Amino acid sequence: MKDSLYNYTLRLGDTSLILAQRLSEWTGHGPFLEEDLALTNIALDIFGRAKGLLEYAAKKEGKGRTEDDLAFFRSDREFFNLLITEQPNGDYAKTMIRQSIIDCFDLLFYTELAKSKDLTLAGIASKSVKEITYHKRHSFSWVVRFGNGTEESFSRLQKGLNEIWAYSGELFEMNEDDHNLIKEGIAVDLDSLKQKWELEIKELFEKANLVIPETLFMQQGSRKALHSEYLGYILAEMQSIPRMHPNAKW
User: Fold this and answer.
1) Positive or negative, the Cα torsion across 92, 53, 109, 80?
2) pLDDT of residue 247
3) According to CATH, what is the number of the domain 2-244?
4) Cα–Cα distance for residue pair 226/238, rounded to 1 Å
């Protein structure tokens, strides 16, 4: 079970880390000052969650590595983040539709994880729920705003949904690690979240006049460390300074 807990926590940490790195790309480029600050703070919240999860993963690994080692000194084939988090931001409408899909899932997921028998995971989750509640309200409001704005804002929103929807199915993929930890009362049964997530997302999309793309194919691969071409570029930028100066103290 130790390996399963390490793998599970690492996966959650990776997903938060890459999502936060993507969102941080908007820093200084938001549509207006208040929104620039809002999204920067959301990215910082998610970075904080990533730090806690990777710190715990390093502890469970028991090889003397730190959360920084896990973040900055692994290759793309050693990362297990969800594919949706590494997709390009696109315009602000695409970023918000991606974020709404993730926020809706995360609030359901971390609410359940807060009940975990693993007290460290439960503690991280409890803190995260408070933050994600705000994140979800923020992204949902922007989706409705874009969907009921101008013809161009709606068009950009629908285009963003069309591009990102195929990555949403992976949110609910489970493997042996999940099943092992579910039996121990540690992990979240993702099957139990899917129906509620679908209802909330459909309700949001109806408010924004969006049409869910008709596709039967969902992208997968992150559970086996298989990624899109984008992850390598994210890591190259994120890891460049630590790799150039591995002994630097901040």
Assistant:
1) positive
2) 79
3) 1.20.1260.10
4) 19
